[in-house]
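Re: [help] complex structure
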Amino acid sequence: MKSLSRLPRQAIAAKIFHWVNIVSLFIMLTSGLQIYNANPVFGGRAGWHIPPIFTLGGWLAGGRHWHFAAMWLFSLNLVFYGVYILVTRRWKHRFVSDKDIKALKLSQNQKRRAYAWHRIAYTAIVPILLLAIFSGLGMYKPAQFSWIVDCFGDWQALRIVHFTTVPIVIIFATIHALLGRKVGGDRLLESMFW
Amino acid sequence: MNQIQIPQQKLLRRHFLKLSGLSSVSLLLGGCGTPLFEDIVGKVSEPLNQKVETLIFNPEKLAPEFPISEIEPEALIVNSFNFTPKIDSTKFRLVVDGTVNKFLSLSMTEIQQMPLASMVIRHVCVEGWAAIVQWGGVRLRDIINLAQPKPEAKYVYFKSADGYYESWDLASCMHPQTLMAYQKNGQPLPIDNGAPLRLASPIKLGYKQSKWVTNIILSDRLLPVKGYWEDQGYEWYAGL
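Output below.
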């Protein structure tokens, strides 16, 4: 744990990824909620609508413009980062491994345990982001990618899954930030962006 | 293409949206709930999105069809932009012209004598809901082939009795599941759903599927006037 007492430094690619991810995700969530309001997933037109303060685009077409513009930023960022962690082999030592599970089982060191939890949290975000893209692609092009709709059963199930990625992403991003702060303080948090 | 009317309220609404966009400049800095340059974002991203949509569109690939038992009669919401025109189907004529070699004026009897195509498909609305519905009618490509399109024909305009208008790419019109439908869920098409004749297809969003179609016009180009919703800012291609 010596490295944590030094000033944390991050690779420039990790900083770019975090910036683009947080900005594009923000646009995806807010424009997505604008689209949601055209016909709420639960209850249809009579269902509960998202207050306008959380939405982006002003109307359905505007929400769709923002959503389908930001989807490129969001998904390509994820693709580039995926290639980056594969090429640099970061995926081997920067994401959760059996060592973290072992630490959670055996270690009494609170810092080591928090570190393990943190790695579990941010590793778990990756499949959620991928699920958001996958289910979104199924809704965007259900005729060309009908097999994606079939993966979820029916249309309503697909809508629910895509919508559910919103609260899950928010919860996991919050946990990620809180645990990151617990592990490395504000300096670690800031090092990921600046 | 002077047959296509431009409804007056379209301009008013667009104008209103522009004004509301301007008046919310203070909101732009404060947070969301605003259009926030959505029209610029749309203009910048649409050409790219449309290129990709055209690229992934497979003119031979059939959208999934469902058993009759899976039809959701209640799920299909009736969306109309203005009013419901009453059309006497005995006097009705479908006129096909534009860049065609043969001008057509077809009665419902003539249309119903053409081969019937029936499909149970998922109708997807831009609003997010979907409904499994059966449409029966004549393949649009059969009508277009009957009119013998000229080689330069690339786009197809649809004019409706209620003033609604739409335009499609020719390739999507020639898709085997794009119908001029006169049947819904095994029954004659109800007036609310576009009787006597409407566009129906699983490969385009609902707003592309004009009801009460009276006029099909082939064109070599896409005019600045593209469709009722498109002219207010919705995307034109809207492929599924």
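Residues 155-191 of chain A form the longest helix (37 residues).
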